[in-house]
Amino acid sequence: MMKRTSLYSQHVKLGAKIVDFAGFEMPISYTSITEEHSYVREKAGIFDVSHMGEICIKGNDAEKFVEYIFTNDVFIMNDHQVLYGMMLYPNGGTVDDLLVYKFHKEHYLLVVNASNIDKDYAWVESQNKGFDIVMSNESDNFGEVALQGPLAETLLQKHTEFDLSKISFFTFALIKVNDMEFLVSRTGYTGEDGFEIYGKHSDIIDVWSILLAEGSDVISPIGLGARDTLRFEVALPLYGNELSKDISPLEASLGFAVKLDAGDFIGKDVLVKQKAEKTTRRIVGLELLDKGIIRHGYKVYHQDVLVGEVTTGYKSPSTGKTVALAMIDRPYDKLKTELFVEVRGKMKNVVVRNRKFYEKSYKK
């Protein structure tokens, strides 16, 4: 049985194209992916992300436990700070990438990918041996929308007395919007400034309607199609593409979210070895020099030797270039290396380039 978020009827009313995503009936687009992508880059877009998972960790050992299952350094977090990182298997493969929200040292919230909620909760629960914590899967109790784009702060500020400029990048606050209580953070998954708004399902429906009532000249509903092109242009990973149980964070070029000099975490010894010896492959950017489109799963060659595979590929709406993220074997991962991608039986010229196809516009 397919799941639906509390905003499902709103998507139908707006004429969204609905698809199966992680077992949820979700909007892939309302108009076109390119048009919605541009809305977020130029104005503001609102996304239904209520399918994301939330796992609550409380107790005397909450801080110690989260540090143990998470690659980033929880001990340096301030209250109301957010950190990005991964949970790993003992072999260094990725359970999931996630955001950790710290209320205080005895209360954390893990925000995980929709496709991994049950798996993640089972994994976290299986690691709770000897820790004084209470954990709960709160995924069904939260609704969430993401408001993204250069006009995001101006739009949301109209509906709250809280000074949104006080929510700096990767922090959160508990605030009222039109007398409804929400957890609001500022992390983004688009390369643009914006907010994640968590609350009761009924309140999320209200805030969705309130923000869209600002008018189509400033804000538009955005589907998961544009969410993917937006995150891809700024080299943000999608689990199942750039990360998986067979891909470590270092192979995914996400070393910034791995703190090997901090506390111990599951899989750390494997990553220490990978860093010392260098991974045998890593995620890089590719740019197509011929005509065509590169897609997920396409094979990459050096002459006639298979050296990698495309993890995500699009014609970038913001730049007009056909680009991709790809897992490439060393030493073919070096900048300006010329390779070939097999596109429908034909070999197309590509060159290795920087992964960031578009400059981020986050408010720090």
Question: How would you summarize what this structure contains?
Answer:
This protein has 364 residues and is α+β, with helices and mostly antiparallel strands. Helix content is 20%, strand content 34%.
SSE inventory with pairings:
Layout: H1 8-13, E1 17-21, E2 24-29, H2 33-42, E3 44-48, E4 53-58, H3 62-69, E5 81-88, E6 94-104, E7 107-112, H4 117-126, E8 134-137, E9 143-148, H5 152-157, E10 172-177, E11 180-185, E12 194-199, H6 201-212, E13 219-222, H7 224-233, H8 268-277, E14 281-288, E15 299-302, E16 305-315, E17 322-329, E18 338-343, E19 346-353
Report on this model:
This protein has 364 residues and is an alpha+beta fold. It folds into three domains: 8-50 and 142-233, Gyrase A, domain 2, CATH 3.30.1360; 53-137, Aminomethyltransferase beta-barrel domains (Alpha-Beta Plaits), CATH 3.30.70.1400; 280-353, Aminomethyltransferase beta-barrel domains (Elongation Factor Tu (Ef-tu), domain 3). The protein is built from eight helices and 19 strands. It has a six-stranded mixed beta sheet, with helices on both faces. Strands 14-17-16-15-18-19 form a six-stranded antiparallel β-barrel. It has a five-stranded antiparallel beta sheet with strand order 5-6-7-4-8. A hairpin with a 2-residue loop joins strand 10 (172-177) and strand 11. Helix 2 crosses helix 7 (224-233). It is globular. The model has no long low-confidence stretch (mean pLDDT 96).
